[in-house]
Amino acid sequence: MTKKRDLRIVFMGTPDFAVASLKALLDNDYNVVGVITAPDRKAGRGQKLKPSAVKEFAQKHNLNVLQPTNLKADSFIEELKTLSANLQIVVAFRMLPNVVWSMPEYGTFNLHASLLPQYRGAAPIHWAIINGEEKTGVTTFFIDEKIDTGAIILSEETKIHEDTTVGQLHDKLMAIGSELVVKTVRQIEKDEVTTVVQPKSDNLKTAYKLDRDNCKIDWTKSLDTIYNKIRGLNPFPAAWCYLENDEEDLLSIKLYGVEKVYVSHNLDAGLIFSTKTELRVSCKGGYIKVNEMQLPGKRKMDVKSLLNGYEFSKNAKLL
Predict the structure, then answer these.
(1) Which regions of 32-86 does DSSP assign to beta strands (E)?
(2) How many Å separate Cα 124 from the centre of its chain?
């Protein structure tokens, strides 16, 4: 029987997505000797310093937490060395400098929320839905010099249903990913890892960082394209566009829950049709039926509630 390696793990992560993997490691009695996470950030109306989700979880479990502002700083490197970790695990964190990821004896592996080599980058869960993919997954790989290019250890696939939102897929991949992290650690613990070099392809899709421009809805696009974009950004950071409503200034609004209505028509894109209980917007191939909307300075509302207190003119449209 092969003798198990005695693992000393440093975990690196920041958001909720990473917490599930850290919890899974503790639940399986792995020795986490340190947790690296982002510095506290100002948040909310009072702009009070708020710790990351990973820090909050780590402190509740009395784990040693480090919050470096500079991952190349000599002081941080020395502090990391004192932890004597022989394995580092990264889930939803920053790009690591060579001096950090190459430090432990058994390497540094990352959990990425896509089926690599597809959707390397910052927002793989969002872009899989925005691009209308029918499947995605999670991958563990050993980190190297470039972003999300290292040798694959394990991966697991899952379906994306036609009405799946990014919030739902995020939670599903978070759970699948935490299990994959534990499976990967078990292989490393038993020295049973076999890796696969990521295949080279000219047809790779990239998970670009989300910004205001690429979250804006283009109402001249097809029904399916618009629908996928809205659900691929629901509930965070949310797809947005402008509302033109009579003499009002253009309003920046956000759309959340929507449905597709396939109808043949010759109407201009973005025209709004409202009744007392329903809101539809014309686009190529049919209508987007809006179920949830957020006006500037207001909370997210279901459309029936919104229509009780807000009126759309006959010429109202989304731009």
Answers:
(1) 32-36, 41-43, 48-50, 65-66
(2) 6
Over its C-alpha atoms, the chain yields an Rg (Å, rounded) of 23
* pTM beyond cutoff 0.85: yes
* 155 vs 291: CA distance, rounded Å: 35
Q: Can you tell me the distance from the alpha carbon of 93 to that of 77, in angstroms, rounded to the nearest whole number? A: 17
Whether residues 28 and 152 share a domain: the answer is yes
Distances (CA, A) of 161 to 212, 228, 290, 293: 26, 11, 19, 22
Tally the domains of the chain: 2
Name the pLDDT band for 313 (thresholds 50, 70, 90): confident
Question: Which residues share a beta bridge with 251?
Answer: 243
Domain limit, last residue, from 189, 221, 254: 189
Based on the fold, state whether residues 218 and 165 are members of the same structural domain: no
Q: Using a CB cutoff of 8 Å and minimum separation of 24, what contacts does 185-190 make?
A: 185/7, 185/9, 185/25, 185/28, 185/30, 185/87, 185/89, 187/153, 187/154, 188/5, 188/7, 188/87, 188/106, 188/107, 188/109, 189/4, 189/5, 189/7, 190/2, 190/4, 190/5
Q: What does DSSP assign to residue 86?
A: S
DSSP state of 39: P
Residues 74 and 184 in one domain: yes
Contacts of 206 (CB under 8 A, 6+ apart): 119, 120, 121, 127
Q: What is the pLDDT of residues 5-24, one digit of tens each?
A: 999 999 999 999 999 999 99
What mean pLDDT comes out for the span 238-250?
89
pLDDT over 80 (residue 45): no
